[in-house]
Amino acid sequence: MRASERAYDVLRGEILDWALEPGAPLAEVDLSLRLGISRTPVREALARLTTDGLVQPVGGRGLVVSPVSASDVVDIFELRHALERQAAQLAARRRDLDVFVALGDELREAPALLALGGEATPEYYATVARFDRAIDASVHNAYLVTALEGARTHAARIRRLSHDDPQRLFDAAHEHLLIVDAIIDGDAQLAADATSVHLNRSLRWIQQSLRDGHGRVASAAGLPSTTNGVQ
Hints:
The chain has 231 residues and is mainly α. The protein contains ten helices and two strands; from the N terminus they run αααββααααααα. A hairpin with a 5-residue loop joins strand 1 and strand 2. The C terminus is likely disordered.
């Protein structure tokens, strides 16, 4: 793997996982030392992340991780709603049945997996990633897939915040299963409606977290953080 690709993957992962939080400075010299590579591949990686919208310049003083505001959250979910409903409908009509049957089996096991907590949670996210890839492979529309990938880049950063609420992860696993079951049945309308339910519930949870001022969600939107509730 080229040094610039490795730097991109590492930094993108840190941004999506909130190891690099909104507003964090991204100095080429510091990053090159930390990653053990020269400044040129770091610069190339930062350029790609800027194109992705995950990094932005700040008044000629360098680059920082892009902020996430309350209005950004709504905008991202509006985009996801339009794209993912359409993708779910197409997947129900064009799916590889065996792939979604296997996904359904995984999602039925998700509650038990999530109950283990800790290191089991990334396994659930791996299942969600396989769900996304299965949808992409089923729609047979490269333009739609490109749009979905862009939306998911930003959605992933928001979605990671639900680490703070195990119940939301349990609920989301059930919602994903409803989508998969509708796709297995070839019911395009139900697949789209189940997608809407999932997105609406996810948005409501994040908006409630913003109102309550919980942890990183509030900090990302520039709101005060409380010491009680979900952290």
